[in-house]
Structure prediction request, 322 residues.
Amino acid sequence: MIPLTIPVIPFGVIYGVIGVEIGLSPLVTFAMSFIIFAGSSQIAFAQLYTAGASPLVMIGSVAAINSRHFLYSAVLAQYLNKLNFYWRVILSYLMTDQAFSVSLSYFKKNKKNTHPHFHMLGSGFTLWFLWQLSTLVGIILGNVVPEELGLTFAIPLTFLSLIISELKKLDHLIIIITSGMASLVAYNFPFKIYIIISALIALCVAYILITKFKKVSQ
Amino acid sequence: MIWLWISIAGLVTFFTRYSMVAFVNPKSLSKTTRKILTYVPSAVFPAIIFPAVFLDKKGFFVSIENPQIWAFVIAVVVGYYFKNIILTIATGLISFWVFSYLFH
Prediction:
């Protein structure tokens, strides 16, 4: 029914396990899935919190990771603008990478449908429910799995998997290496600000690539 | 205090999703801005990946015999070839365990 472009269930399980392994309480780990409901920023938030980052940096990093939602929101706005306040709030809360791609293709294919937002509610809620459920499974597993397995190594692997298909694009590769190198240099800067600094530097490079070298970014 | 920070993080996340849906004119994002936003994952995630693979907790480079470097390289190669998210993570973890055992 829903072509899951990103496998939600294993991700939720990994998040739950990691949350418990790096020292968050089960309740906090679960509440984040409910309140933030954005996998990659939840992992980043948990990691920064247990590393003793300042709250401003934790929240700033979450904002940086989720700034891509501005794009989704702008693209979906033409389909959702006419809905009432409650619909817009609920559908915004449910707007994830997967819900975005599934809903956008549905909206484009079903322009005559007068209630396409019900489809987004359905797919969004399904993903939401699977995310909560798999987080719970992960939390239970995290309490059982021995620490010696080194499952925190799943953190970089998870983020790697999210950009693995971008590696073959030259423009993305340049930005990936820029960000990575910057993070190694800035790692010991105060307040764990390295994620934000590296992202800003990499996005400046992206801006230069877009404006000066249009051929590279096509 | 963690509940406060989580709540704010949740509100910030919600705002990024609600932003353009809330306004009448979503075209306020320029083409360049839209293009830049497509690069966000490639700009943010490496900053989480690189230190976790190449640095120890104190911020020093790990030695070349560290299993996670080799596991990471294998995960990149396998992931690049098969373009599969779960396979990338699984290969990385299993290689990590194998190298940890071998280098032990």
